[in-house]
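Sequence, please.
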């Protein structure tokens, strides 16, 4: 596996982690809104 390929994988994993955090944050805020009502 080349270094460039490894860097691309790390970049993709980092982007996925950011997206997952954003989704979790959104899910939590929705959950709090539903329980508050």
């Amino acid at each position: 596996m080349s270094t460039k390929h490894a860097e691309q994988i790390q970049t993709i994993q980092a982007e996925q982690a950011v997206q997952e955090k954003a989704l979790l944050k959104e899910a939590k805020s929705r959950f709090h809104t539903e329980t508050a009502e």
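The mean pLDDT is 92.
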